[in-house]
Automatic annotation (TrEMBL):
The lineage of its organism: Eukaryota, Fungi, Dikarya, Basidiomycota, Pucciniomycotina. InterPro entries: DNA/RNA_pol_sf (IPR043502), Rev_trsase/Diguanyl_cyclase (IPR043128), RNA-dir_DNA_polymerase (IPR053134), RT_dom (IPR000477). SUPFAM superfamilies: DNA/RNA polymerases. It holds the Pfam family RVT_1. Residues 3-84 form the Reverse transcriptase domain. This is Reverse transcriptase domain-containing protein. It comes from Austropuccinia psidii MF-1. Coiled coil: none annotated.
Length: 117
């Protein structure tokens, strides 16, 4: 298992580099990695089992572990990094969109400039 002390400022970047190296030949083919999350995707109903097995074999071979309670399988859509990913594409999660819609309208130039930053 890979464990890094919280005091190391480069820990997230180091972990990402490790995971990118481990899954280099899978990336953007059927795997997307973001910090501690690994998303496995497939274009057919037959591929997921093979893809997940490949990822699990690779994690086991490199002493990395998954938390079963965080795993989702056979889903037609998943929430990932604030977006909903599905066969229809990538959409902003509805709660994020609602926050933007509820954002107060700027009432003066200063508020408008602040909004654009």
């Amino acid at each position: 298992m890979v464990v890094m002390p919280f005091s190391l400022t480069n820990a997230p970047a180091s972990f990402r580099n490790l995971v990118n190296e481990i899954f280099a030949d899978f990336l953007d083919i059927f795997v997307v990695v973001s910090l501690g999350d690994i998303m496995v995707f497939s274009s057919s109903e037959e591929e997921p089992v093979k893809h997940v097995a490949s990822v699990l074999q690779r994690t086991r071979a490199n002493n990395l572990f998954s938390k079963a309670s965080k795993c989702v399988s056979h889903a037609s859509s998943v929430e990932y990094l604030g977006y909903v990913v599905s066969s229809d594409g990538l959409k902003m999660h509805s709660s994020k969109a609602q926050q933007i819609l509820n954002w107060p309208h700027p009432k003066n130039i200063k508020a408008l400039v602040r909004l654009s930053l």
